[in-house]
Design goal:
CATH topology: Peroxisomal Thiolase, Chain A, domain 1
Structural class: alpha/beta
Radius of gyration: 20 Å
Largest sheet: 11 strands, mixed
Shape: globular
Number of domains: 1
CATH class: Alpha Beta
Strand content: 15-25%
CATH superfamily: Thiolase/Chalcone synthase
Order of helices and strands: EHEEHHEHHHEHEHEHEHEHEHHEEEEE
Distance between the termini: 21 Å
Oligomer: single chain
């Protein structure tokens, strides 16, 4: 069976450094940090009092009051990002659009955490005197698949529709699933990506209790510092990125703008620890090598790696070890950066955001930087002879880019995108 080629024809983004694709990309290239004191709730008693929140987002600008009753914040972000991506792609204008063969896979690692927190908290405070009293939208607002459902209903898309949950690998897994459905001939186009909104007491408190997030309250904008010896944990982020994936001939038939081509995807499991990556990066090596094999590519075909690079002491080291092991001498010729230094870690949405950065790097031949790296502040276990793109974007030919996402539970997912060639 001949596999179909899959291209990216639309992008949408609501992120900590911009509420659209153009602003997010410009700020990433400029090295703008999205970290600031938390505004979603009073975090003054928490060990960590900052995060990378979405800024200037007013739900009332996008939804009426009736619709808002049905939507957790993570789903609001997803729907708005999907609207941007659909408008960008002009998919709905296509005469050849078959809505039965157009689907939605938008992932979330956690889903409606704020909704759960509100409803469970209300019962904890009032349940004994009032009995069970829950919002009828409680369950459909909370569940992690519901963003896909809302998007499909808004556009009357009857194709494959589900959510993916694999912690911080979720939206890479969603992209891979959408990619496979199209290239196997099961769909013509897919709306895919991820969304997350967990910067609330349960999310911040939960990650803080694990000592997973930074406590650099005196300097939030410099707290996410992947590959620096002084790193002390990741910075929570939120938002959504949605991509329109489309079968190449379907896209060409309607004269669609093509950003890049999806080349392949790889997955693996560390099968090692509940939250920590394998110290030698074995799962990362397998995920990346599987992606290369799936794409029919060799290590030397990759020019840029957008690493998972969360700014955690163990995770950053293991990923660099994996890259060094798998890519060999070519590891010194490609560029490496962690855009989480600017956006924070969007959990289940992070893979989609970093896939978007990888697409734009291929399209524009420029690599966004890892900010907050201080010269000499290096870990002896990291090979700093590799070409890390620190503090300033770097122009270079980017034929293909590889993007890694790793999640609690040992979930690993790698997406490869490349320049589109007719």
């Amino acid at each position: 069976m001949e596999l179909k080629r899959v291209v990216i024809t639309g992008l949408g983004a609501i992120t900590p450094i911009g509420n659209d694709v153009a602003t997010t990309w410009a700020n990433a290239l400029a090295g703008v940090s999205g970290a600031a004191p938390i505004t979603h709730f009073d975090a003054s008693k928490f060990k960590t009092q900052f995060a990378c929140e979405v800024k200037g987002f007013n739900a009332n600008d996008h939804f009426d009051r009736k619709k808002l009753r049905q939507l957790d914040l993570y789903a609001q972000y997803a729907i708005v990002a999907a609207r941007q991506a659909m408008e960008d792609s002009k998919l709905l204008d296509a005469e050849n659009l078959n809505r039965n063969r157009t689907g939605v896979i938008v992932a979330a690692g956690i889903g409606g955490l704020h909704t759960f927190e509100e409803e469970a908290g209300y019962y904890a405070l009032h349940g004994e005197e009032q009995g069970p009293k829950y919002n009828p939208f409680f369950i459909p607002k909370m569940i992690a698949d519901i963003a896909s459902g809302h998007i499909s209903m808004e556009y009357e898309l009857h194709g494959p529709n589900f959510g993916v949950v694999s912690a911080c690998a979720s939206s890479n897994n969603a992209i891979i699933d959408a990619f496979n459905l199209i290239r196997l001939g099961k769909a013509d186009a897919m709306v895919t990506g991820g969304a997350e909104a967990a910067i609330f007491p349960a999310g911040v408190g939960g990650f803080s209790s694990m000592h997973a997030i930074s406590t650099r309250n005196d300097s939030p904008e410099t707290a996410s510092r992947p590959f620096s010896k002084s790193r002390d944990g990741f910075v929570m982020g939120e938002g959504s990125v949605v991509l329109i994936l489309e079968e190449l001939e379907h896209a060409k038939a309607r004269g669609a703008k093509i950003y890049a081509e999806v080349a392949g995807g790889g997955m693996s499991a560390d099968a090692y620890h509940l939250t920590a990556t394998h110290p030698e990066g074995l799962g990362a090596i397998l995920s990346m090598s599987n992606a290369l094999e799936d794409a029919g590519m060799k290590p030397e075909d990759i020019d840029y790696i957008n690493v998972h690079g969360t700014s955690t002491p163990v995770g950053d080291i293991s990923e660099v070890k994996a890259i060094t092991e798998l890519f060999g001498d070519h590891a010194h010729k490609l560029n490496i950066s962690s855009t989480k230094s600017m956006t924070g870690h969007l959990l289940g949405a992070t893979g989609a955001l970093e896939a978007m950065f990888s697409v734009l790097a291929c399209q524009n031949d420029i690599v966004p930087p890892t900010i907050n790296h201080e010269e000499g502040d290096e870990d002896e276990n990291i090979d700093y002879t590799l070409n890390f793109t620190f503090n300033k974007a770097q122009e270079r030919p980017v034929r293909a880019a590889l993007s890694n996402s790793f999640g609690f539970g040992g979930h690993n997912a790698t997406v490869i995108v490349k320049k589109y060639e007719a």
